[in-house]
């Protein structure tokens, strides 16, 4: 009985962690906190999200660049690499 309860708790924990990431969504953050983090736009690699107050706004990278979610910067297409939107 205890092991079943532990497995259930682990499963719920895993669901809670990955519930925030929707691989089919555009990646728009909810901006409930005060963060200046840049967020990947899952649908358009030339754009990223920035929270301004409680609103997420999209920002366009410079021409010939794409947003790199690892460095949180717009980088040249020669160095840009695709990454899965949700951690594995």
TrEMBL record:
Q: Does the keyword tRNA-binding apply?
A: no
Occurrences of domain Chitin-binding type-2 (ranges): 31-79
RNA-binding among keywords = no
**Residues in the signal sequence:** 1-19
Among the GO molecular function terms of this UniProt record, one is: chitin binding
In this record, what's one Pfam family? Answer: CBM_14
InterPro entries in the record: Chitin-bd_dom, Chitin-bd_dom_sf
Keywords for the protein's UniProt record, in alphabetical order: Signal
Which is one Gene Ontology cellular component term of this protein? extracellular region
Query: PANTHER family attached here?
Result: CHITIN-BINDING TYPE-2 DOMAIN-CONTAINING PROTEIN-RELATED
Q: What is this protein called?
A: Uncharacterized protein LOC111598986
Species the sequence originates in: Drosophila hydei (Fruit fly)
């Amino acid at each position: 009985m205890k092991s079943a309860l532990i497995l259930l708790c682990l499963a719920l924990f895993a669901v809670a962690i990955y519930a925030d990431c929707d691989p089919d969504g555009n990646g728009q953050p909810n901006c409930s906190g005060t963060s200046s983090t840049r967020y990947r736009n899952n649908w358009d690699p030339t754009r990223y999200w920035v929270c301004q107050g409680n609103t997420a706004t999209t920002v366009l990278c410079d021409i010939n660049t794409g947003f790199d979610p690892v460095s949180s910067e717009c980088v040249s297409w020669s160095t840009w690499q695709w990454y899965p939107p949700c951690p594995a």
